[in-house]
Amino acid sequence: MTLKWIDSLEVALALIDKYPKQDPVLLHFTELREWILALDEFDDDPKHCSERILEAIQQCWIEEL
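RE: above sequence
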């Protein structure tokens, strides 16, 4: 499965799997962006990322904990 920026919940779930002990509230958006880009399943243009997208992913992550 390929993940895109619009797949907020799926990206959050992949991050939870990869970083199970990380508190997403403490994560800076710059670091969150790099972690997303490093996911094996992620395949989207890094230029299409925005603060709004990162907020949505972070919120999904928080809600899943």
